[in-house]
Amino acid sequence: ENSNVRVEYEEKTINVSNKKIKIGLKIAKNIFKKYDDLHLRIYLSLILKANFGSTSDFKELLLSKEIISDLSYMYELFDDYIVIMFTVDSDYEDEVIKQFNEKLNNLEISEKCFIRMKKALIANIILEYEDIEFVNSLIQLEILHYDKIISNIKEIYETLNIEDVNK
Asked: Of 44, 48, 26, whose CA–CA distance to 35 is shortest?
């Protein structure tokens, strides 16, 4: 994969009821050499949820100002890159891009938020293990992503720290 961005900016006009804005990030994975894919996924999940999730201040601000009507994100780790894709429903493209640039250059997660999210992750894992279909899917994903079953996920969550999140 070439490290250059293939298309910096592109506009497409199609007949849709809601305008959608896609903002994509392609990040070289080698800048996170200290972390394996599992830890990278966990930290990315925490950072994205804290800054862009359904209860994040950023999303609430954009919704309250009626700049957006919806915001979602997804990410994937590949061999050499992390790809993060935001999807935003908005009629205010320039304002959305400006707000996202500011936010992406000033990502943060407070220690209080981090502790709350870490506890919630552990609680969710415990609850989700009661669902046989979830466990089946989880085992399949773990084998696909890591070539093994992660049997100590609770302990891994417990070792997470705010310093690594902020790095």
From this structure: 44
- Give the tens place of pLDDT for each residue, 65-89: 999 999 999 999 998 999 999 999 9
Nearest to 92, CA basis, from 111, 68, 58: 68
Say if residues 28 and 84 touch (Cβ distance below 8 Å): no
Instruction: Tabulate helix, strand, coil % of the chain (nearest 5).
Output: 50, 15, 35
Place of tokens 């999940």: 45
Q: Is the dihedral of CA 136, 125, 85, 13 positive or negative?
A: positive
Query: 37-52 vs 111-128: helix axis angle to the nearest 10?
Result: 120
34, 152 contact by CB (below 8 A): no
- Rounded to whole angstroms, the Cα distance separating 11 from 120 reads 39
% the chain with pLDDT above 70: 98
**Phi (first) and psi of residue 78, to 5 degrees:** -115, -175
Give helix then strand counts, H and E, for the chain: 7, 3
List, for residues 43-61, the tens digit of each pLDDT value.
999 999 999 999 899 999 9
Which tens digit of pLDDT belongs to each residue from 115-145?
998 998 889 888 988 999 999 999 999 999 8
